[in-house]
Structure formats: C-alpha cells, structure tokens
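--- STAGE predict ---
source: upstream dedup step, 1 unique chain passed
mode: sequence only
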Amino acid sequence: HILFISLLKTTVTFTIFWALYRLVSHVSYFVQKAKGTWKGGMTPELLHFGSTLTKILIATLGLMYILEGWGLNVGAFLGGLGLLTAAVGFAAKDSIANLFGSIAIFLDQTLRKDDWIKVDNIEGVVEHIGLRTTLIRQFDKALTILPNIKLADGPVTNYTKMTHRKIEWEVGLRYDTPTHALETILRTYKAFLEHNPLIVTNHEDTR
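--- STAGE serialize ---
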C-alpha cells in the first residue's frame, strides 16, 4: 500500500513538472512569434537563454520533490555534499565563468545572432550564442568557437551597430603641381565634403 502511494505521488509529481517543462517551450514559441511591441527589448537569444534556465530549474525542483516523496531528506543530502559541490564548482570554474559571461551578453545585448563582429584577430558573423560558448563563422567559412567570458570581458567590435563608416581618401599629385592648382583642388574637395549630405565631417554629427 505504501509503495502504491509513493508510486502514485511520483507519477503525479512527474506529470505536473513535465507539463510545466513543456509549457515553457510553448510559451517561448508564442512569445518569439508574437509581433506586438509588448515583447520590449527581448531578443531571441535572451528568450532562449531564459527558457533554458527555467527548464533546468523546473527539472531540478521536480527531481527534489520526487526524492522527497520517497522519504529522502534532500536538504540534508545536499548539505552533506557541500565539500563535493565545492570541489566540482572549483573544477568547473571556467564553465561557471562562461555562464555568467553569457548572462552579461544577453542582459547588455552587446551582440546577437547574425551580427558582424571582431574579437582580436577573429572576425565574422555570429551564428549562435550558447550558455557557454559563441559560434562565429569567419569570412573564409571557418567556424570559430569562443568562450563567452572572452566576449563579455574583452574588447569586441560590433560592425553591425555602426552608424557611419570611416573612409580614407588619398589623392595623388605630382611634385611639380603649382600652388594655385593645389589651392583649387583643396577648395573643390572641401566643398564637396561639406555639402554632400551622405558625408559627415564633424565627429559630433556621428553620435
């Protein structure tokens, strides 16, 4: 009889948490497909990250409730694993650092999928931002995997968010070019740069 009650509680608990687990996927899908402005600044990457963490939390809580239903003191068990947890945490410190790096990326929204970025000598398009690493497809089609902590702490150039492009214009002249010709050329180019609406010459206008 006791075994039957325990199995019944386990089945009910599993069903409830499995439904919640699946509900997260459906809610995430409908939020991503929604076209209204109520989504705010939520990006697909941030939505995926949040749904993944929510699923992990639901699965963990479900397992704890099932173990409690079989009479196991989960709190005392976890307390007894304190030293082991600390050892595992120390061994996985890089993974934890990358996890917090991904959180910083998602919250700051410094980059997202399909952005053109450059990190050190790596330049390409972001294909995927995961919980631990980010995939960058370089222009030679090579796939580079970067730890998220490097993207969160290091300098990253995001060319997709450029408002203007810097142009270096070289004009070749002969050494025997007369002075009046140089002055005419300078006036012509200056007038062209100042009156062309597509060219910004004042750095304050680039803000």
